Amino acid sequence: MSRQAKRDTQCERGIRSALFASGLRYRVHFPLPGMARRSIDIAFPRRRVAIFVDGCFWHGCPIHGRHVKTNSEWWRRKIERNRERDAETDAALRAQDWTVLRIWEHESAEASLAQVLAVIETRAGVAMRRETGCRGANRD
Q1: Which residues have C-beta within 8 Å of that of residue 86, sequence separation ≥ 6?
Q2: pLDDT computed for residue 104 by the predictor
Q3: For residue 100, what pLDDT band results from cuts at 50, 70 and 90?
Q4: 23, 42, 27: which is closest to 102 by C-alpha?
Q5: Of the residues 18, 111, 119, 137, which has the fewest C-beta atoms closer than 10 A?
Q6: How many Cα atoms within 13 Å fall on the side-chain side of residue 118?
Q7: Three-state DSSP string of 66-126
Q8: What is the CATH number of the domain that holds 31?
Q9: Would 130 be classed as within a structural domain?
Q10: Is the pLDDT of residue 131 over 50?
Q11: What is the pLDDT at residue 36?
Q12: Is the CB of residue 100 less than 8 Å from the CB of residue 114?
């Protein structure tokens, strides 16, 4: 298990390629503000959008997560702790006004791209209102 990629996985690279091809620019493995030793897989810092690409095994996917038979109690606790850490990370980012999007590794790059674009468009409106000081719905 120590040989498993911790970053730049095939799924993560596929999503990044789709984002780049659509014209979006992002930061990779962006340090998590205020939390040492944690990073955002794909970050849009100006828009405050954090994208995490979670592996089905390591993060306990309800569809594809599997139970290990050897040393099963240790692995159960390990995956539980990963999920708790994910929740802590999400809460910390949301407290700093970030939008968090978690994508499972089994999701297609096209579906993931659609999710990200929807979030980016929503956050673009929030960023625009924040920069201009506009609080109304439509200001010309």
Answers
A1: 52, 54, 59, 102
A2: 86
A3: very high
A4: 42
A5: 137
A6: 8
A7: CCCCCCHHHHHHHHHHHHHHHHHHHHHHHHCCCEEEEEECCCCHHHHHHHHHHHHHHHHHH
A8: 3.40.960.10
A9: no
A10: no
A11: 85
A12: no
